[in-house]
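TL;DR need structure tokens for one chain.
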Amino acid sequence: MAISRKSRRMLIMNTTRKIQLKHAILSIRAFTLLESLLTLTLTCFVVLMFSATLQNTVHMIRGELFVLQFEMILKNQQAQAVTNAEPRSLSSFKGVVKVNGVRQPVPKETKFSDFEVTFKENGNIQSIKDAKIVILLPYEGGKQITYQLQLGSGQYKKTTS
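>> reply
TL;DR here they are.
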């Protein structure tokens, strides 16, 4: 039996289509694998860069939050001295902050100067010695916060540099 020209042509066209389809599928798979590797590499790079930035931001926020907490401790000690009619102390030596002799946790994002402040029963500061508190925030480019305590009034002046 002889195959007609028309059926022969159809057979060749079908075979050609199958070959082209297989070739297209294989090249798409290879492209998808290459594209996936490239996307994975870029994603890892972006995530690593973002995490470093995020860590710096977290350190800055921790430092600022502790400064705010320290201000509240300072005001609270003064208020308790007046309320309880007894002296209250706040001190730091070699970076260890103590409130009435009890050690307070200090995050690594803050560095304290040495100081010793005692509030009298009326809320005033007892001694002239070390009436200046300096807090250094190394994660904010060495930002320095200074509290200059005023004798007699118990108030303080906060400056940032």
